[in-house]
């Protein structure tokens, strides 16, 4: 009698099965190394038809499915449990750009396309695909959609949910929903695509999407401004938006400790300032005008902010290489933290106006409860999303401190909730926050979510143990 692996191999071919234990290992552990599982099989379909056949087979056998893209999840959403009975369906082989429509400003892409590759395709077509995040060299658009990824361009372009027009999805019974419409107006009932965006693979497998493109900016100006802290950051954001309007495409807060970690662990990074400051804002504007005009606008806006006492100092990027170096300080924070040791991570959001209060209350409460705590905070102040990570400065102490995660989480989440915020801004829930969400969602919201799950996935085979 043929094994499950043999039956799956008959669908996807030899290239579509990862059978060697060493080759399977990267699919069974998350990026942070916090969650490890054991898959029955890792299968890599090459097209939507193969995905549908694989899902139909597994649904008939009531075998659980773990959809997976680049496996860069920070919440353990994309790895199997340790039962050895779940099948990982990895879509990395599905990496074709099916179409680019410059007149409609869209591209139709398969789920396994690496985000950086899609940015390049857009650029080659004189367009911009604005989704940008630290893992863009390895994360895949299917995973970005399944977690409703945010990133650094949300302030101007919105998160992934706002960048998608249509989806193709393999449902939990193997049927294929073809919703690949490049329409900006379609008022024919429920907008089904939004059920799957942010669902973390618990309702079906996204196999392709129609994504929005934008005119490529002709000019970009970038600077790092030294500031006192979160209050100045929010005040500076308001002043900059009043002066530059929607030209602001990035507005990132970095505490001094973030600089220190990147400078310590990432080769080639340099401090743009001669002396340290408490915190920094990385600000970028883009426009359709000339490079000189963009630089003058940013320089004048920062000059006015300095006169108003909102910034202590500022450095404007004088070249594209320096611009990339500035962004390197921001984008390498997570990698530097990983190299430095384990930390208790929080991806939270609050109303922009309450960001300073979040810092003030949470910093104080944690310091009182956990002496010598080290807080590494950074993020997208422009949309109220803060990555608020807690650890100790010594590696061994940090490892011991990690055991206090439930208490730390509770303290942070209570402050976030009291400010009308969310315990997950852009990373999702996965298995990390599956139980926590029960405290912060109303019973009605949870009932509605469970009802949707039961309707689409009555057998409960799609990414079980994640989200709900």
TrEMBL record:
Q: Which GO terms describe its biological process?
A: respiratory electron transport chain
Q: Where is the signal peptide?
A: none
InterPro entries according to UniProt? FAD-bd_oxidored_4_C (IPR004113), FAD-bd_PCMH (IPR016166), FAD-bd_PCMH-like_sf (IPR036318), FAD-bd_PCMH_sub1 (IPR016167), FAD-bd_PCMH_sub2 (IPR016169), FAD-linked_Oxase-like_C (IPR016164), FAD-oxidored/transferase_4 (IPR051264), Oxid_FAD_bind_N (IPR006094)
Keywords, ordered alphabetically: FAD, Flavoprotein, Oxidoreductase
Q: Which residue stretches, if any, does this entry annotate as coiled coil?
A: none
- Which Gene Ontology terms cover its molecular function? FAD binding; oxidoreductase activity
Annotated FAD-binding PCMH-type domain ranges read 35-216
Q: Report the cofactors.
A: FAD
Superkingdom, taxonomy of origin: Bacteria
Can you say what this protein is called? Putative FAD-linked oxidoreductase
């Amino acid at each position: 009698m043929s094994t499950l692996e043999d039956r799956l191999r008959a669908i996807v071919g030899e290239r579509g099965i990862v059978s060697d234990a060493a080759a399977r290992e990267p699919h069974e552990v998350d990026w942070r190394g916090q969650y490890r599982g054991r898959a029955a099989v890792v299968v890599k379909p090459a097209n939507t038809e193969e995905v549908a056949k694989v899902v139909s087979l597994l649904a008939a056998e009531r075998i659980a499915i773990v959809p997976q893209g680049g496996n860069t999840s920070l919440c353990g959403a994309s790895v199997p449990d340790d039962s050895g009975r779940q099948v990982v369906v990895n879509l990395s082989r599905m990496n074709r750009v099916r179409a680019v429509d410059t007149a409609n400003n869209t591209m139709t892409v398969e789920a396994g396309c690496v985000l950086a590759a899609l940015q390049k395709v857009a650029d080659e077509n004189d367009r911009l695909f604005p989704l940008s995040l630290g893992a863009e060299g390895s994360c895949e658009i299917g995973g970005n959609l399944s977690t409703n990824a945010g990133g650094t361009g949300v302030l101007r372009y919105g998160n992934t949910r706002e960048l998608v027009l249509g989806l193709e999805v393999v449902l939990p019974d193997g049927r294929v929903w073809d919703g690949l419409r490049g329409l900006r107006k379609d008022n024919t009932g429920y907008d089904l695509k939004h059920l799957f965006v942010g669902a973390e693979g618990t309702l079906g497998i996204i196999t392709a999407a129609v994504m929005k493109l934008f005119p490529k900016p002709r000019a970009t100006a970038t600077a790092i401004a030294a500031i006192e802290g979160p209050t100045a950051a929010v005040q500076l954001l308001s002043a900059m938006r009043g002066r530059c309007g929607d030209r602001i495409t990035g507005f990132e807060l970095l505490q001094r400790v973030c600089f220190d970690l990147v400078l310590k662990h990432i080769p080639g990074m340099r401090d743009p300032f001669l002396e340290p400051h408490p915190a920094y804002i990385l600000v970028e504007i883009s426009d359709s005008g000339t490079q000189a005009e963009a630089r003058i606008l940013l320089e004048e806006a920062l000059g006015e902010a300095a006169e108003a006492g909102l910034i202590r100092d500022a450095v404007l990027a004088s070249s594209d290489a320096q611009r990339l170096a500035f962004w390197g300080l921001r984008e390498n924070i997570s990698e530097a933290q990983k190299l430095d040791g384990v930390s208790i991570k929080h991806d939270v959001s609050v109303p922009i106006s309450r960001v300073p209060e979040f810092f003030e209350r949470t910093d104080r409460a944690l310091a009182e409860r956990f002496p010598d705590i080290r807080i590494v905070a950074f993020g997208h102040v422009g949309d109220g999303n803060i990555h608020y990570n807690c650890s100790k400065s010594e590696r061994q102490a940090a490892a011991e401190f990690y055991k206090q995660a439930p208490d730390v989480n509770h303290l942070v989440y209570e402050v976030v909730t009291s400010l009308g915020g969310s315990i997950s801004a852009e990373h999702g829930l996965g298995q990390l926050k599956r139980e926590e969400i029960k405290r912060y969602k109303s019973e009605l919201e949870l009932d509605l979510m469970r009802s949707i799950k039961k309707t689409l996935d009555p057998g409960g085979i799609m990414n079980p143990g994640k989200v709900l």
